[in-house]
Every structure is written in C-alpha cells, then in structure tokens.
Amino acid sequence: MYVGRFLVVGPDVGAYRVSSRSFPNREINAREDALTVGPTADAPETDNPYVAYNCLRIVETPTGETAAFGNGSHVDPIAEKLELGYPARDALAGSLLALDYEKDDYDTPRIAATIGDDGDAFIGTVREDALLVERVDEPTLVATYETDTPEAFEFGAADAEAAAREAYDLEFEHAVCAAGVARSEPGDGSGFETAIVNDD
Known about the structure:
16% of the residues lie in helices and 39% in strands. Helix 1 (75-83) runs antiparallel to helix 2 (88-99). The protein has helices at 75-83, 88-99, 160-169; strands spanning 6-9, 13-19, 26-30, 35-39, 53-61, 64-70, 110-116, 121-126, 131-136, 140-143, 151-152, 175-183, 192-198. It contains three helices and 13 strands, in the order E-E-E-E-E-E-H-H-E-E-E-E-E-H-E-E. The strands form two sheets. A seven-stranded antiparallel β-sheet has the order 3-4-5-6-7-8-9. Strands 11-10-1-2-12-13 form a six-stranded antiparallel β-sheet. By secondary structure, the chain is α+β, with helices and mostly antiparallel strands. Strand 5 and strand 6 form a beta hairpin. The two termini are 20 Å apart.
C-alpha cells in the first residue's frame, strides 16, 4: 500500500519517512540546526516547492527542549513558535492552519508532530477538509494518503536509530529515506538523539 510521506510519534520516540513515486531521488542530511530533506546529487532539476525542506528540528523552549518534525516547510514555523514559548498544541495548530494543505495536484495534507523532553507528545495534520491536533500517549501514525487521520500504530523502536530503521523498513511502498528522534534518557530532561536512514 502507498501512503505517501508519514510519521509515527509516541511519548518518547518518533520517526518521519519520505515515500515518493514522483520524486524518489532525495535524501536526508544533518545540518547544524536541522535534518533536511533534499534532492540527491543526481536528481533531475525541479521547481516543485515541496521537494526540499527541514523535516526535523530540536529547539530550546522556555521549559526545555522539544523536537518538531513533519513533511514540509511548516516544521520551521512550528519550531519558531515553540522557541517563543507557545504550547506544542498551539504551535502545531497555528502553523498547520496558516500554511494549510499543499496546493499540489493531490491536495496533499501537511503532517507534523512534537515530542517534549518531558514526554509530552502531539500529532497533527491539516487536510482539505479538516485540521486535527491530538495529544499522544501511545505510538500514533498519520500519513499524507490513505491514513490521513492519526491512528494508533504498533511501533517498537526505543531509540532514534531503531526508529529511523523501523520506519524505513515498514511495508509501505516507495521508501526513500527516514529520520528518527528519541529522548536520550526518557524522563531525565537530557535532550534528544537523532538518526538518518537514506535509500539502501
């Protein structure tokens, strides 16, 4: 089954995967302040505005660190609102509503999630017909197609590397690359670790 881009988030761990039929020549790279999806060196040129973006950022908030991740440019305003002290729910809802679903041929939803270093996690999506933001207390998945409403999902990863690998290896079609994030030591406020899996 093809579900497009998707993310999974639980209270302590999360993952984001790029799945693509149209733009498979992409990878995730670690920059100083973000994990960034972008074209590979051999990718055909495109003017599609949705191909490259920061998919994961970890920011310092007034109450500690928070990880924000998702499938597009809305990750940046979510992160910026978190830094300003917005509650995670409000940062997600405000940014998703402001940027709205992607104005492409498929009206692709935007999806996003946050994990606080206290284990407070949220997931959200904005579609053509709805804006949904929910608190998460068990692993939950949302995708751009098919599963575009958050739903409980079996996800066993306990650290960032395992999360990226498990997301990449899930039997949804057209895997391209994946990122994982986890609280380094759940419950002790020590921050986050991240990991990347690019096309094998």
